[in-house]
Design brief:
Elements (H helix, E strand, L loop, with lengths): L7 H8 L3 H8 L10 H14 L5 H8 L4 E6 L10 H17 L2 E5 L6 H8 L6 E5 L6 H7 L4 E4 L10 E4 L1 H14 L5 E5 L5 H16 L9 E3 L8 H7 L7 E4 L2 H13 L9 E6 L12 E4 L2 H16 L8 E4 L2 E3 L13
Helix pairs in contact: 1-2, 1-3, 5-12, 8-9
């Protein structure tokens, strides 16, 4: 038989005071008649002796706050395999949540309709949500309509009332593509992300328009879908065996870039001598590949923390200095592109 849970009534009986007095003391609530220090110590001793701890659900109902934030991702596959991006995202959220006194709930329960998904988020278990969803996902506008606190991160919205935190992904792609062009690489393949992700679309556009500005004819067969590290890269293999093969690859993520780099080596090519490779995110894994991977750095941990802080300000009704925040990317040069690393620090 399980042990009975100690209640506020039990503490009150042990201390010889009312339940209201116990509640006032435990919540540091001001009272019309001051509570003596002797009474306070008697209640605290009773709490310790009985092993009482407050019921979090009951406290949340009384305060109408759960002090909990939901993390809502587009697909559970974001946790598949290794992902430096996911690790940094969760670390940034966790550190900032701890600092601000909030818990984190990973919201993974699938719902048949967006209406039911919105209701499950708004059932009182969480005070707000961080959303990493596709640009056309219907959950965000519905939560806006219901006035439920939420912030988009690593994506964005055109809605004037939306709150979001993102990186300048277009600029990041521009940095990567221009760097490869400056190294004399003109036949650049782009391994593109999902067409429903803002970040992937911006990186594709940045790649396209940078080539055009430099007078490089765009080859549509050089744009290959590669939504995740395990994507089918048979089209890339075919290109690598053409007489005039690609001399560089710009991948939309580090995971995809590392897969492509290993594939090139398997096909008998040298990286970077025969083909240069650049990724996006520049997470810690880039220092441990062979060769180390050149990559565009977005400050993932900082961005995740900024998004959570913006959400907490929304929840607590604090004025927002800005509703959107865009972080600048930086190209971090390593050996996979063939440049002199020291010259680009």
């Amino acid at each position: 038989m399980s042990k009975r849970r100690i209640t506020l009534d039990d503490v009150a009986r042990r201390a010889g005071v009312s339940k209201v007095t116990v509640s006032n003391i435990l919540n540091n609530r001001p009272t019309a008649v001051p509570i003596s220090e002797a009474t306070r110590q008697r209640v605290l001793s009773a709490v310790q002796e009985l092993g009482y701890y407050p019921n979090a659900v009951a406290r949340a109902l009384a305060r109408q706050r759960a002090d909990t934030i939901a993390i809502v991702l587009q697909f559970p596959a974001i946790f598949q395999g290794w992902s430096g991006f996911t690790n940094e995202l969760m670390r940034g959220v966790s550190y900032k949540a701890t600092e601000l006194g909030y818990d984190i709930l990973l919201h993974t329960r699938a719902q048949p309709t967006v209406e039911q998904e919105a209701r499950s988020l708004m059932d009182g278990r969480v005070d707000g949500a961080l959303l990493l969803r596709d640009y056309n996902d219907p959950l965000h506008p519905l939560l806006l309509e219901r006035d439920f606190p939420h912030v988009l991160f690593f994506t964005r919205s055109a809605h004037p009332d939306a709150c979001w935190v993102d990186c300048d992904n277009y600029r990041g792609a521009q940095l990567a593509t221009e760097h490869l062009l400056q190294l004399g690489r003109a036949r650049i393949v782009h391994l593109a992300g999902p067409p429903t992700a803002c970040s992937a679309l911006d990186r594709l556009q940045g790649y396209r328009e940078t080539l055009q500005r430099h007078g490089i004819s765009l080859r549509e067969d050089y744009i290959i879908p590669a939504h995740y590290g395990g994507a089918d890269l048979s089209r890339l293999v075919q290109l690598l065996h053409q007489p005039k093969r690609p001399d560089a690859i710009f991948a939309w993520s580090d995971e995809v870039a590392i897969r492509a780099m290993n594939l090139c080596i398997e096909q008998g090519l040298r990286v970077p001598e025969d083909i240069a490779v650049v990724g996006f995110d520049s997470t810690e894994i880039c220092e441990h590949t062979n060769p180390p991977l050149t990559s565009v750095r977005q400050p993932i941990e900082t961005m995740a923390g900024a998004a959570l802080e913006m959400l907490v300000n929304c929840i607590e009704g604090k004025p927002l200095t800005h509703r959107t925040q865009v972080f600048e990317p930086v190209l971090q040069v390593r050996a996979s592109c063939g440049a002199n690393r020291e010259a680009h620090r």
